[in-house]
Design goal:
heteropentamer; A mainly alpha; B mainly alpha; C mainly alpha; D mainly alpha; E mainly alpha; A: mainly alpha; E: mainly alpha; 70% helix; 0% strand
Chain lengths: 112, 534, 95, 500, 317
């Protein structure tokens, strides 16, 4: 088993684990962690693609690697924004549930 | 010249409509809107004696046509609109909401007779259907609101069916033309012929009240004030007639379709009378009479379709034009009678002539209309059924006259209030006009004066009147059937459908839970993958 | 010479690995957090130090060797600070 | 497919169209909310002008215009490409953004005596960022670059949802953000696979290289599902109704009118520009079926809402469904494909204008009455005639009655459905129209009825006029000449040249 | 020779195990800690994939800054004891979720395993172009980021900016303009202060170094900036520095400087080099370093501001 295939399988496993967490965890912060797992799994697939593209004396294809760096930055920004929303929601109402019906809160509040 | 008139037919109401959007012009525009049908009247009269014309505006995808059947209906409709509109606004100034609804309905009611392509026909047809809601349904009266909602539901359903029909028609035209003449020429060879025909019959059938789509009409006419009922029953319903005339491939014999339509038409004709006889308010009885008359038209068109007879178009346009005048005059009669309190003998004769004209009473326009339908009901079963329909009509109209004279109390008060004073004052003239005007437009009026034809016209009327009087004398009570008959069933079905609403709501609430939605996303991935790898 | 250096590397890295394993075992087996902390800091300080020591002869140039030492020093610093912070939290929790 | 030069005359306009609002975002951030408002408003005519220029260039060339960034052609560099649909979408976006911006001045002005206010800075920056992201989505030629644009769009849209800071809007925003992120990673995974397969992410290069392999389908399925999540296609619409119904009216107009169309546009790009050569009938049918469900569910739910803005938001769920009929109706190189394509694009445009107009009008209603409960609308049309005229005209388009863009769209789709023998799609198209009739009736019937509505504050004429203007555009679309539909075919692979 | 594959497999298993732990952990805080460890392990995987640049990024962002972000969030949530998050799905739903996730992961594994050989690659072109006159860089990744895919990179910086503004915008209206809440409320301990005093200057030096060598060796603007950001956060945690007021003009300018300079140079490229985002031959490398310097500044400021959160009226100076 070569390293890039191994990493690809790890990526797939991470995607699977993350997807499960994203679906099943009720707490949004846990969902966020799961999202980051899926994200890193996807980045690993990019990494595998980059590694497989080794040619012309280079150990990797730089284009997908550059994309991963961009992707990591974007994923971090997303996490930070989500964390800010979660914290604010916790402070405002104490209820951070994403399913209003499940927690008995209505989501069709009156207009301004 | 004719092209200019055609354009003006649509442009005039459009200009009045545009003026309504300027606050300070609105009132004046509405007051003067009786002038808007004038170009249509001119075009109609002009077009009667000329070969069919078509005006195309390729840039807009718009095309207008005028052929004799359309011209005849256009002329009569324009006349009716002008008369009623002028009287209504002279007598009182209805509010802007009513006025704009009126103007829009008029726009559509004139436009249907000249629209030459599918899209513009659809537009003007929607205009003659939907804004009419504003003429009667804004009311505190729950019965009127109910009538409005039902009217709108049928109108929208009809629109939907026609949209699909038109799409099929357009798809059957190989060159991409949307002109009605072109798509109809291509229809007999189109692979979607049968579906298109079924949709056309159903769609326009809703407008003219063919069973089982007849229930809205009695509710509508009962709820509408008399002037509105007059134009809707007179000019409005004819949009369905012109629709059938335009969109049935009359030139090509289609046995199955033609006979089916004829059967449906006759069924409607007798059904309308039967239910109408059980009604007690004059407006409702007139509505059932309309249903019955439209059934006759549908039957004649069906027979024409079966034989591939293009003449049916002109004949039924004439029949429809006569009905247009007479039915609207009859609605005004209700107002006139109500305000007179008691009918003088002369008025009674006039009212009776008007009413029985629908049954083909000799010397009235109805006799000419009946004559025009003879080509379709020449012999055999159709002839028999047509005669029976005449008898039935005479019965129903006698029933109407009886209830007209017995009208009292609140109903009479309403009728008096609703009818403009001018129309009441000039009612005898209007009635006479409605009886005589068709004579100027008939192909061979002289024929109707032959003794044989007079006898042919007379005896069914006499039988019908006698039967109605005899029935009344017998004291047999008709069963109580609510106005709108089958509509009650539809409402029940609709209520059952509405009860599904909470089911949808629950399902939506479930699906909008995070785990369900997130799992759906994965399911969609897998479904797309599975679909692609099949 | 190179054999000697290799032997030295082997011995030092081996010793470092031993401390890492010992530290890990302590982390898993010791009864409470303070003692676990104690075991862990051994792994960091001694284990990493020995590994770095073993790798220095194999560095390509003096700058690389210096980098290795700097890495060790930084780990020492952060490890000590973290241990101190955790310890303080634990003590506060006990009081 | 004809090879396009990397950069064509006029291509630089595309870069400017993206960078102009992007630069506006940066300067607004540095200069504060008072300047941000001026910058955003000042940019709207310039952006509109640029979009029109692009459209003119495309029309003049009769072919897409393109620009290779940095002079480096794909596969290494990023190309921007504008075809007929791109140009039309850019013009649409610029009009709706401008309308929302001028409408929002009343609500998001920086109050006197304050150096800067939270709502104002957020709104004015985010609306420019949305605009930049949309322009890039419309002209982007590289799938990863489009991913960045999509994220830019999401990051700009989410704060608009919770700009008023109430807990329910925060929850809506969080739900929107997390689900959109879920969609993003799915899309990105597909992008990774495509690069792994073909070594490029340039749309036109990919179109030449793709074949019907299981891996391609996996990538396409992942990307599509991700885009659907951001488009809120049923049953992925969990975030849309609360988000669109609770955002301020100007924001809702942009979110509902434009933002969901951004991700849909990418789905179009994927299926019609990257994969046009593949047999897409079966996946197209899956998408169409989801669209049909969306039409039915969204309309029924809209019928049952008690609040105007929620009703309009659910109507968006339904109208999004119509968009997806384009996949079964316009695929391949059949005679009816141009009809389906024109119908799909027309639906995008008609819904964008009509829905933006309705949200703006709904905002005015809520401000004037102090609430937006439909039960309390009795007689409101007499007090707010222009606003209810706007709602009526917009509703006409949603119902698909002539003369409106919504009618034109349904008419074209039905013709395509008939011509292709896929009559099954005509059922949801017509049924949705009937249900739309029902919910529009629910708004208008009480409003037009007699009664006295208590008006708390009369809205400014200018804001009513802005909403009405958008509705009139939705109406005017019905009169689009043949040339317009020919223009939409420019640059579409397999365009047979004979539009409807 | 034979030990490396074993190490790889061990590393893979470890990464998956830690990932599974973060999903399975009962406690929110435990799962956050698991994620931080996961981020560091992942950096090793990137090294094994010959992706040192990503490894640096992952270590700095995935393990470092995200770790601080999540740990801070977890602590703040724990402090608000009353948060409710609703009940989790039932067993049946969990099984369905697990089955669906496994199916998708399986499909993905299949696809990854059957990627074509030889793999398509842009490496030769990228390397050739990176060394060419338009860029003149030894590190092809930096060339891709700043030159060929400049549009991506510039927009990504705008994404960061929007995230900062989005985070600020969830704050209260009357707090607008003030500074975010400090990362640690309590007065710091001596150890923390000592750590910050020693570590921060060294870390900052290393950050600048990573940026500087990024043109030719692994590293670059983002990695350098992230390290600087981490050092600033350490200093903030030790309360040696306080977060600036969000209304501060200097802060705003620092935040936009990266994308703004990039955008300006990109626009100027049309005049100087004949195309937007092209660099005039000969000046490419200095221009790229010039842009990157500002990007380092933007990143170093943006990341801590994102971690610090929305403005908090209490810490108004």
């Amino acid at each position: 088993m070569n390293p890039s295939l191994l990493a690809g399988l790890v990526g797939a496993a991470l995607v699977g684990l993350g997807l499960y967490g994203l679906i099943a965890h009720p707490h949004p912060l846990r969902k966020l962690l799961a999202f980051n797992l899926v994200g890193s799994g996807v980045f690993l697939v990019f990494g595998v693609v980059a590694r497989r593209g080794a040619a012309a004396g280079y150990a990797f294809d730089p284009v997908p690697q550059a994309m991963v760096i961009t992707g990591i930055v974007v994923a971090f920004a997303a996490s930070a924004l989500a964390v800010a929303l979660i914290l604010r929601l916790a402070v405002a109402g104490g209820d951070v549930s994403l399913d209003p019906q499940a927690s008995g809160r209505r989501d069709d509040g009156e207009a301004e | 010249m004719i092209a200019a008139l055609l354009v003006a037919t649509l442009a005039a109401p459009a200009i009045f409509l545009a003026a309504c959007f300027v606050g300070k012009w609105r009132e004046r525009a509405l007051a003067w809107q009786f002038l808007a049908p004038a170009p249509g009247l001119a075009a109609g009269i002009f077009g009667l004696s000329h070969a069919p014309v078509a005006v195309d505006f390729p840039g807009l995808g718009l095309s207008l046509t005028l052929d004799p059947p359309g011209a005849l209906l256009l002329a009569f409709a324009a006349l009716l609109w002008m008369a009623v509109t002028a009287a209504l606004w002279r007598d009182r100034a209805p509010g802007a909401r009513f006025g704009i609804s009126w103007l829009l309905t008029m726009f559509g009611g004139l436009g249907v007779f000249v629209a030459g392509d599918l899209v513009s026909f659809y537009l003007v047809y929607a205009l003659v259907s939907l804004p009419a809601y504003g003429l009667f349904a804004f009311s505190e009266d729950p019965e009127k609101r109910r009538a409005g909602a039902i009217y709108l539901a049928f109108a929208l359903l009809g629109e939907a069916l026609l949209l699909l029909a038109f799409a099929l028609l357009a798809a059957g035209e190989p060159h991409g033309s949307a002109r009605i003449a072109d798509v109809m020429a291509a229809l007999p060879a189109s692979p979607w012929r049968d579906a298109a025909l079924a949709l056309i019959v159903a769609g326009f059938g809703m407008k003219i009240g063919l069973i089982p789509f007849n229930g809205w009409m009695p509710l509508n006419y009962a709820a509408a004030p008399i002037p509105a009922a007059a134009v809707l029953s007179g000019a409005g319903v004819k949009a369905g007639v012109i629709g059938l005339i335009r969109f049935l491939p009359l030139g090509v014999p289609m046995e199955g379709w033609g006979e089916a339509l004829a059967a449906l038409g006759f069924l409607t004709a007798f059904y309308g009378v039967a239910i109408g006889l059980a009604q007690r308010t004059p407006k409702t009885i007139l509505a059932y009479s309309s249903i019955s008359q439209m059934g006759v038209i549908a039957a004649a068109l069906g027979l024409g379709l079966a034989r591939g007879d293009t003449g049916a178009a002109g004949d039924m346009a004439f029949y429809g034009a006569n009905h247009l005048l007479v039915k609207s005059a009859l609605f005004l009669t209700i107002g006139a009678v109500a305000s007179a309190g008691r009918l003088s003998r002369r008025s009674l004769v006039l009212a009776a002539a008007l009413a029985l004209s629908l049954a083909g009473l000799p010397l009235t326009g109805g006799a000419l209309a009946k004559l025009a339908s003879k080509a379709q009901f020449a012999s055999g079963m159709p002839a028999l059924l047509a005669t029976l329909a005449s008898i039935a009509s005479a019965m129903l109209m006698t029933h109407f006259l009886i209830h007209l004279t017995e009208m009292s109390g609140e109903a009479a008060e309403d009728a008096r209030r609703e009818t403009p004073a001018v129309l009441i004052r000039f009612w005898p003239a209007l009635a006479l006009g409605a009886l005589l005007l068709p004579w100027f437009f008939a192909d061979a009026p002289g024929e109707a004066l032959s003794l044989g034809k007079i006898w042919d016209g007379f005896w069914p009327v006499a039988v019908g009147v006698a039967a109605a009087l005899g029935w009344r004398r017998s004291g047999l009570a008709a069963p109580k059937i609510p106005a709108g008959d089958s509509i009650v069933l539809y409402e029940r079905g609709f209520a059952r459908m509405m009860a599904l609403g909470p089911v949808f709501e629950t399902a939506d609430a479930r699906l909008r839970q995070w785990p369900a939605a997130a799992a759906s996303l994965l399911l969609i991935v897998l479904a797309l993958l599975a679909a692609a790898s099949i | 010479m190179s054999v000697l250096a290799d032997l030295f590397s082997l011995a030092a890295v081996g010793a470092g690995v031993f401390f890492f394993i010992a530290g890990t075992a302590g982390l898993l087996r010791f009864p409470d957090s303070l003692t676990r902390l104690h075991a862990l800091s051994k792994a960091d300080n001694l284990g990493l130090g020995l590994v770095v020591l073993g790798l220095i002869p194999r560095a390509e140039n003096p700058l690389a060797a210096l980098k290795l030492v700097v890495v060790w020093a930084l780990v020492l610093l952060s490890g000590a600070s973290t241990a101190q912070l955790i310890g303080r939290v634990l003590r506060r929790g006990r009081e | 497919m004809i090879a396009q030069p990397a950069t064509t005359p006029g291509g630089f306009l595309l870069v400017l169209a993206v960078l102009l609002p992007a630069a506006g975002t940066l300067f607004s951030f540095a200069l504060g909310s008072r300047a941000a408002e001026k910058i955003a408003l000042g940019l709207t005519p310039v952006g509109f002008f640029l979009a029109c220029l692009v459209a003119m260039k495309v029309a003049a060339a009769g072919a897409p215009i393109a620009y290779a960034i940095g002079g480096l052609p794909p596969p290494l560099g990023i190309a921007l490409r504008a075809d007929g649909v791109s140009a039309v979408m850019m013009v649409t976006a610029s009009i709706i953004v401008a309308a929302a911006a001028f409408y929002a001045r009343a609500k998001f002005a920086t109050p006197d005596g304050v150096e800067e206010s939270r709502g104002a800075l957020t709104f004015w920056i985010m609306i420019q960022a949305i605009w930049a992201a949309l322009n890039l989505i419309f002209v982007g030629g590289d799938l990863f670059n489009l991913y960045v644009a999509l994220e830019l769009l999401t990051f700009a849209a989410v704060p608009l949802v919770c700009i008023d800071g109430r807990p329910e809007t925060l929850a809506a925003a969080l739900r929107y953000l997390l689900f959109a992120l879920f969609g993003s990673v799915s899309y990105l995974l597909g992008v990774a696979l495509l690069y792994g397969l073909y070594g490029t992410l340039d749309i036109s290069l990919l179109a030449q290289r793709v074949g019907a392999a299981p891996m391609v389908w996996t990538a396409a399925a992942l990307m599509t599902a991700g885009l659907l999540a951001k488009t809120a296609l049923f049953p992925l619409h969990l975030w849309l109704p609360p988000a669109h119904a609770n955002a301020p009216a100007a924001a809702s107009a942009v979110l509902s009118g434009l933002v969901v169309k951004g991700s849909f546009f990418l789905a179009l790009r994927l299926w019609f520009y990257v994969l046009p050569a593949l047999p897409t009938a079966a996946p197209g049918a899956v998408l169409g079926a989801l669209g049909a469900l969306a039409v039915i569910f969204g309309s029924v739910l809209a019928l049952r809402q008690a609040r105007l803005k929620l009703l309009v938001a659910y109507s968006t769920v339904a109208q999004i469904g119509y968009l997806f009929f384009v996949f079964p109706l316009a695929a391949g190189a059949h005679v009816w494909s141009p009809l389906g394509w024109s119908g799909g694009v027309m639906q995008i445009l008609a819904h964008a204008f009509a829905k933006a107009a309705m949200f703006l009008a709904a905002g005015l209603v809520a401000e004037a009455l102090g609430h937006d409960r439909i039960a309390g609308f009795r007689g409101a049309a007499r007090a707010l005639p222009l606003t209810f005229l706007t709602l009526g005209l917009g509703g006409l388009s949603l119902m698909g009655l002539p003369p409106t863009g919504g009618f034109e769209a349904k008419w074209l789709m039905l013709r395509a459905a008939a011509a292709s023998g896929q009559w099954i799609w005509s059922l949801p198209i017509l049924g949705g129209g009937l249900l739309a009739g029902g919910y529009v009736y629910r708004i208008l019937a009480p409003a037009l009825a007699d009664g006295e509505a208590a008006i708390q504050a009369r809205p400014e004429r200018s804001r009513e006029a802005i909403a009405l203007g958008l509705a009139v555009i939705a109406l005017a679309l019905a009169f689009a000449p043949q040339g317009f539909f020919d223009f939409l075919e420019i640059g579409r692979p397999f365009a047979s040249g004979s539009a409807p | 020779m034979s030990v490396l594959p074993l190490l790889d497999i061990g590393l893979a298993l470890l990464v998956v195990a830690v990932a599974a732990w973060t999903i399975a952990a009962r406690n929110l805080f435990a799962s956050v800690l698991g994620y931080v460890a996961y981020g560091l392990l992942l950096a090793l995987v990137w090294v094994r994939l010959h992706a040192p640049d990503i490894a640096l990024t992952e270590a700095a962002v995935g393990g470092g800054v995200t770790g601080v972000l999540l740990v801070t969030a977890g602590k703040r949530l724990d402090a608000l004891k009353a948060t409710r998050s609703g009940a989790g799905p039932g067993l049946r739903e969990r099984i369905v979720a697990g089955a669906l996730s496994a199916l998708v992961a399986g499909a993905l594994a299949f696809v990854v395993a059957s990627l074509p050989t030889p793999a398509p690659s842009l490496a030769p072109q990228a390397a050739a172009a990176a060394a060419g006159p338009g860029a003149g860089l030894g590190n092809p990744i930096t060339a891709v980021l700043i030159s060929y895919r400049a549009f991506d990179t510039m927009l990504e910086k705008i994404v960061l900016l929007l995230a900062v503004l989005g985070i600020w915008s969830v704050g209260a209206d009357d707090a607008w303009g003030s500074a975010p809440a400090p990362l640690r409320r309590a007065r710091p301990d001596g150890a923390m202060v000592l750590l910050a005093r020693i570590l921060a200057p060294i870390g900052a030096l290393i950050g600048v170094h990573i940026f500087w060598v990024g043109a030719d060796a692994p590293g670059g603007a983002f990695q350098g900036g992230a390290l600087l950001a981490a050092m600033w956060m350490v200093a903030m945690m030790a309360r040696l520095l306080e977060a600036p007021r969000i209304g501060s003009r200097a802060l705003r300018l620092a935040l936009i400087s990266g994308p703004a300079v990039f955008l300006t140079v990109g626009l100027a490229g049309n005049i100087l080099a004949g195309s937007f985002f092209a660099f005039p031959p000969g000046f490419a490398k200095p221009l790229i370093l010039f842009i990157e310097a500002f990007m380092v500044l933007s990143v170093a400021v943006a990341l801590p501001m994102m971690v610090a959160g929305p403005p908090d009226g209490e810490s108004k100076p």
